[in-house]
Amino acid sequence: MQPFWESVRVSQASVVFDVRTVDVGSVKHISLWELAKPPEPELLSGDGTQWEGIVAMVEARGYTVETTRRRTGEANGQTDSTARKVTVRSDLEGAQRTKTLVHELAHVILHADAPRRDLERSVLEVEAESVAYLVCQALGIDSARYSVPYVAAWAHGDLDLISQTARQVVATANTIQDTLF
After folding, report:
1. pLDDT over 60 (residue 164)
2. Less crowded by CB within 10 Å, the N or C end of the chain?
3. CB 86 within 8 A of CB 104
4. Structural domain containing residue 24
């Protein structure tokens, strides 16, 4: 019987790939995560809602909100805890701008102050985007095609990470929703 790592089988009778037949010098080694990588987040289209209310929540926590056409790297928004400023790209459609502002508000609520700001970046991003997803659902904005791939990518397929953040995420989403509605 050959070891499991020597072949990948679709069924007992069919060998799909056998390591012994491959010139290993020409094979690029990739991880299982690279093979199962989630799709890229898709920017949302359509109108946003509650922009002013969300801005007021950010400002109530001592931050300013700025919109800019300037790209903030690959990000659609950014929270600078030192300058106490949230920046959101102005060239995004309303739904994406709203979702991005909620994501940044989640960073302000959850991560602006020590000790939570020292968490791993993956935890910070999973929490903030999960909050944005829940709040957007309450606002009638379907952000799944952006939020699900975003969370999956930052979690690196770690369902335990998503589960461990759930309590903080739900509490923060409820805080935002209670203020908006």
Report:
1. yes
2. N
3. yes
4. 4-35
- 159 SS3 class: helix
Nearest to 152 by CA among 36, 45, 35: 36
Residue 41 lies in a domain: no
159-180 and 121-139 helices, crossing angle to 10°: 40
Q: Express each pLDDT in 71-105 by its tens digit.
A: 656 799 999 999 999 999 999 999 999 999 999 99
Residue 4's pLDDT is 38
Q: Can you tell me whether residue 83 is helix, strand or coil?
A: coil
Residue 156 within a domain = yes
User: Is the CB of residue 54 less than 8 Å from the CB of residue 102?
Assistant: yes
90 or 4, higher pLDDT: 90
How many Å apart are CA 162 and CA 123, to the nearest integer? 8
Q: Fill in the DSSP letter of residue 72.
A: B
Identify the residue whose tokens are 């509650």. 50
pTM: 0.79
